[in-house]
Request: fold
Amino acid sequence: MPLTPTFDDLLLRARDLTRSGRRAILGIAGSPGAGKTTLAERLVRELNGAGRPWVAQVPMDGFHLADVELDRLGLRRRKGAPETFDAAGYAALLRRLRDETESEDIVYAPGFERVLEQPIAGAVPVPPTARLIVTEGNYLLLDMGAWKRVREQLDEVWYCELDEEERIRRLVARHEEFGKGHQEAVDWVLGSDQRNAELVAATRERADLVVPGG
Reply:
């Protein structure tokens, strides 16, 4: 594959993951605001086309701990950091998705409601016809704790990389869109979000493919 893959290159690579006939799981990692969700949504949309859906999207963000639990743990101000997710539960769901390929049952995954900033149980249906699962999140390549078990369930992990100035601009705009004032958004992005981004950037070398440009 070329150093700078086109979107068509990415589509071919994603399709190849299912060549063996078994269900495959593709992870898309990257720092907050790097374009992970946009890439995942476009891949799923283009691969499914107008036919019977065979690709499903399962976001890591559904495994955010609820605010009430973050308050109990004293982690509310660190929301978005690795320790504010149920990484073990995420790894268990990915393993279930990999193992339950012969089942006729729908597997329900949690989603994340950005307006509420809360996880929503049972929001993402994964049909038994899904041969490829696309999952995106910051910490798929993190080599610590239960996050190691997440990586073990993924056939490949792609790393989204975006110019740092543009990534920060997008992230500030996102926080403003979902209710933060401008200065509050800037402070959050350059504080808590930036510490998380630096942690994620340190995992780049573990990716199977780097996708530049967001």
Remarks:
- The helical segments are 7-16, 36-48, 67-73, 87-99, 147-152, 164-177, 182-201.
